[in-house]
Amino acid sequence: MAFKYDLDYIINFGIELLKTPSPTGDTQKAVKLVKDELEKYYPCEYTRKGALICKIEGENKEDALLLSAHVDTLGAMVKELKPNGRLKMSMLGGYAWATVEGLEVRIPTEDGREYTGTIMTTAASSHVNGSLTQSIERNDKNLEIRVDEVVKSKEDLEKLGIQVGDFVYYNTGTRLCDSGYLKSRHLDDKACVISLLGIAKYLKENNIVPPRTTYLFISNYEEVGHGSSAGVPKEVTEFISVDMAAPGPGQTSDEQKTTICVKDSTGPYDIDMKRKLIKLAKENDIPYELDIYPFYGSDASAAQRAGVDARAALIGPGVDASHSFERTHIDGIKATTDLALAYVLAK
C-alpha cells in the first residue's frame, strides 16, 4: 500500500527547518517554527523544558502511541574571549572537532547583534607553521573562531557585545540534489521532524481518526541525553523514536531505506514492536533494514531511563556521515514516513 501524502511539502519545510539554527539550549525559534506548522492541523503545547507535544485524538484514548523526533542539533558556545581576538568554543552534543574545522559560523549576541566567523586551528597557515598545520591535534584547545571583524584583543571582542555563553551556529550547507539526495548538517534529526509533520498533515486532510490517540513529541535536548526524559503523557504505552540511522562499514543502514534499530548502546528495543514494524514494512512494500548501533542512544531510551513505563522502538532514514556533513535521500525520508504512518494506522 502506498500512502499518498505531500512529499514536496515535507522536503520544502525540511529545508526551511534545516536553515533555522537550533543548537541544544537555543531551540526556541525552531520549535516555534514547527509549532506554527503543526497547529494548522492539531493543537500543540509546550512542556516546561520547551519541548513541543501535539495530540491527535484516536478511538482508544487509554492505550496511546507517541512518536518522537528532536529539533535540537550539535553546535557550540563561546567558552573564552582570547587575548588574540579569537574565540574558544565549548562543544554542544558529541562529535569530533575535526568535522567542523573550516566551517563558517554565526555568533548571535544577547544584545541582538550577530557576527560571522570561521573555525580554524591555531596553526592554520602552513606557510607559518609548516608540518604543524597538518599534525596539530583537533581539539577544543587548538581550535578557535576567527571572527570577521577588526578584533585583535579580548577588549575588541567585548566591544562587539560577544560574551561567554553566546551560542555558535554552524552553517548547514543545505542542498537538495537533482538525484534526490538531501545534504546538510543537522539532518540528525530534522529529517525526521518533517516526517511527523507529514503524518499530521495526512491524517487531518484525509479526516482520519487513528485507532489510538497518537502524540507527536518534538524534543529539544536529545543531543545532551535528556530530550524525552520528561513530559511523556501517562497513557502512552508505546514510544517510537524517529531518528537517523547510521550507514557505514559493518552496518546495514541505507540512505534510501528506513531502518528498524534492534539494539543500540542502551540495549535491545522492544521485540514485539520490532516484529510489528517488520510486518508492516513487508505488508506495505516499504524498503527497510535491521541494524544495531554500538555508539547511539535515542529519546526512547532517555524516556525509559527516566522511568517512563512504555515499550520502545527506533526507526529512521539512513544518514551518511552522522554528526559531520550529513546526507540522506528523499526515498529514505519517505520510507520512514510510510512506516511511522503505517504504525499509527495499525489496528
Write a compact overview of the structure shown.
By secondary structure, this protein is α+β, with helices and mostly antiparallel strands. The protein has helices spanning 7-18, 28-38, 126-129, 132-135, 154-159, 187-205, 271-283, 299-305, 330-345, and strands at 44-46, 52-56, 60-70, 75-81, 87-92, 104-108, 114-121, 143-147, 167-170, 175-176, 181-184, 212-219, 236-242, 258-264, 267-268, 288-292, 311-317, 326-329.
Model description:
One of its GO terms (biological process) is proteolysis. The protein is built from 9 helices and 18 strands. With 347 residues, it is of the alpha+beta class. The protein has 2 domains: 7-73 and 186-345, 3-Layer(aba) Sandwich (Aminopeptidase); 75-170, Elongation Factor Tu (Ef-tu), domain 3, CATH 2.40.30. The strands form 3 sheets. Strands 1, 2, 3, 12, 13, 14, 15, 16 and 17 form a 9-stranded mixed β-sheet that branches. The chain has a 6-stranded antiparallel β-sheet with strand order 5-4-9-6-7-8. β6 and β7 form a beta hairpin. α1 (7-18) packs antiparallel against α6, α6 (187-205) crosses α9 (330-345) and α7 crosses α9 (330-345). The relative contact order is 0.20. The model has no long low-confidence stretch (mean pLDDT 98).
